[in-house]
Amino acid sequence: MVIIPIIIVLSLAMYLLYKVQILRLGEDPLKQVYTNSKARIALGLFMVSVSMNVYIVYQTKLALYITIVFIILGGAQFIYGYKTTRFYGKQLKERNS
């Protein structure tokens, strides 16, 4: 199971990259919100992959309950980030056209 730790590291790196990129964008709120929504996608993927890894390692009832909660929270972050990325992506295209 090498794929899950790779996903964990990559999603955490992408989350941190997007958060730092928000600081560099300056005064443009539309680009900041768009970048923050991409960070939410990475955070959701991170939460889901960490919770799956916890369950694979421990395989107890407590780990199962924690995994279920984190999958729900991570999935909500991922879905919200995806929807806002699509919305603000269209707004950026219209503004740049």
UniProtKB/TrEMBL annotation:
Transmembrane intervals: 6-26, 38-56, 62-82
Keywords noted in UniProt: Membrane, Transmembrane, Transmembrane helix
InterPro entries recorded: YtpI (IPR025618)
Name under which the protein is recorded: YtpI-like protein
Classification lineage: Bacteria, Bacillati, Bacillota, Bacilli, Bacillales
